[in-house]
Amino acid sequence: MPNSMRYCQTCRFELSKRGFKRHTLSVVHRKGKLIRAMLERDCITHAEIARRIGLTRERVRQLAQVMGFATGRSRHAICRMERRRKEMAEFFVEAQKRGFAVELLGKKSAYINGKLCIQRQACWHDVGRGEYKYTCLSIRRPSAKFDICAWKLPDGRFLILPKKLTGFTQTTFNPEESDRLGTNSSSHYYRDYVERWSLLGRPRRARG
Ligand SMILES: [Zn+2]
Known about the structure:
Elements lengths: L4 E4 L4 E4 H9 L1 H4 L1 H8 L6 H8 L3 H10 L5 H16 L2 H8 L4 E3 L4 E4 L2 E7 L1 E5 L6 E7 L7 E5 L5 E5 L7 E4 L35
Parallel strand pairs: 5-8
Antiparallel strand pairs: 1-2, 3-4, 4-5, 6-7, 7-10, 8-9
Helix pairs in contact: 4-5
This protein binds zinc ion.
The site of zinc ion has 7 residues, from loops.
């Protein structure tokens, strides 16, 4: 009997006429918009919603189901994925923008095209003394396992080196063109490896 049913526009519930009156007085109805807004944010757990609204966790679980939200478990999984993505090192964010499929292992390590990639930071370092003193970038060989290491440079670019070129513990290089010759401790050909994204192979899709 459709006439005896009413539809609550706030909660999107269908209720009998008798139940409707009671419904409009309920916590669920009065806080319906708030509950829905919280359920839309995957990082707010059912338990947290229950605590804030003053319902039981089980009631929130039932409401979420009726309102058509994913289960608590899958919301939790989505939340974890979102958090990881937010914390992802810049190299992987950039790789994704370039169309590479990034399988995160941690914040600073991921598989790209089957290659274990990690990100580290390069920092400025003074070399030499007096008039021979100049500033260059210093990088350290990571102790972690990797196939490709990307050092983030202070200007936002990346020095991307394959493992076979990382036979140093610590080394320096000048990221800019310079008349100065390198010293034994500075390998200037690294400049050619700045933004050498081709080391990762082909992106899955063309850059858009
Ligand atoms: Zn309602």
